[in-house]
Amino acid sequence: MFARKIKENVYWMGSVAWDSRLFDSLIPLPDGTSYNAYLIKGSEKTALLDTVDPPKADELMAQLGNIPRIDYVISQHAEQDHSGTIPKVLEKYPDAKVVSTPKAKGMLTDLLKIPEEAFITVKDGETLSLGDKTLRFVHTPWVHWPETMVTYLAEDRILFSCDFFGSHIATTDLFVTDEGRVYEAAKRYFAEIMMPFRNIIKKNLEKLTSYKIELIAPSHGQIYPRPAFILDAYRDWVNSPPKNMVVLPYVSMHESTKLMVDHLVAALVDKGVRVELFNLAVTDIGKLAMALVDAATIVVGTPTILAGPHPYAAYAAFLANALRPKTKFLSIIGSYGWGGKTVETLAGMIPNLKVEVLDPVLCKGVPTEKVFKALDDLAAAIAKKHVENGFT
Ligand code: FEO
Fold first, then answer.
1. Hey, whose CA ends up nearest to atom 3 of ligand 1?
2. Residue finishing a domain among 239, 262, 285
3. For the chain, what is the domain count?
4. Same domain, 19 and 143
5. Residue 392 is assigned to a structural domain of this protein
């Protein structure tokens, strides 16, 4: 792809990664992704804002082919999908300075061996003049690493946000044209890497309220021509109470746990509780992460295998613990053959979750009427808790 003009002397560069299907060797990318860099030409100086993932370096370097001079390489985030091509850019423009937060300088030195003398570090709120264009750097830590910042181009009212507000979508549309599609991709992205830091993200959102923003240009996905769309979505994900919803990740080996899951789902729905069900043997964990953004309750369904939870259930518990959703209640259901420590093992895997554990329902072998009654009671307890807490 060639460089694309956004505004006068402001260009998109980078790579649209149509074929990428896994991010960080972990996160499914059903719609691919993009690595966005931005070129800003001032009347006196030229800045390149972020770079691209190293496997995409040739595309960025080709786009820079007829750019004679770069004065500044702004590194908003040290993670290599944005910073990894800085060394190649510096090879072409040896006089360019890398502009970053002080913390990012240390990380970029460690990760990419960029020499210390190449850096200019910027304080929170500091500005850098390119002549007729001015960059203001706003430190926004923990979106999603500790060193992150965003950059406000004052004259054009563009906020360059790196991972903040990003989405994994490969498309030729430079600007958001389908907000529904982007909402889902951005929520998935928020859930996977930002949800654990939402209290700090809330403060970062507040920091941005004083800026007049006409465009938000993230480093993954499309540019937002209607910033309120994504700002409002983030405020909802960060601030709103959990919803009247149960997320139910489960795995079943010989159908007994599945019978319990199906019964619990029916009982919950009957009591007016929404359920998002995920068969962990086949599920997309990005969808599971996204559902956790809103869930008031998690119920893990697992058989007992080798005296503990099924490894897929352990994985789901580990993931939920790492993502630290707003969830308030948790329970466990499942079938076992002769015994084990499924509940104790799973409960020990979620120290980060500030949840009340509701009575688990385990049964030996195939569930009986007594077990189904216990599941009805669990559904009733969940519905009652949701009502008491005002979750709607
Ligand atoms: Fe897109 Fe945290 O890197």
1. 79
2. 239
3. 2
4. yes
5. no
Buried b (16+ CB within 10 A) or exposed e, 233-265: bbeebbeeebbbbbbbbbbbbeebbbbbbbbbb
Same domain, 216 and 306: no
Is there a domain that residue 156 lies in?
yes
- Measured by CA distance, the residue closest to atom 2 of ligand 1 is 79
Distance 14 CA to ligand 1 centre (A): 14
Query: Tens digit of pLDDT for each residue in 327-359?
Result: 999 999 999 999 889 999 999 999 999 999 999
- Cα–Cα distances (Å) from 259 to 254, 316, 317, 342, in that order, read 10, 20, 21, 18
Most distant CA atoms of the chain, gap in Å: 78
pTM over 0.90: yes
User: Among 239, 263, 282, where does a domain finish?
Assistant: 239
What's the pLDDT tens digit per position in 247-282?
999 999 999 999 999 999 999 999 999 999 999 999
Q: Which residue is closest in CA terms to ligand 1's atom 1?
A: 163
Q: Is there a domain that residue 390 lies in?
A: no
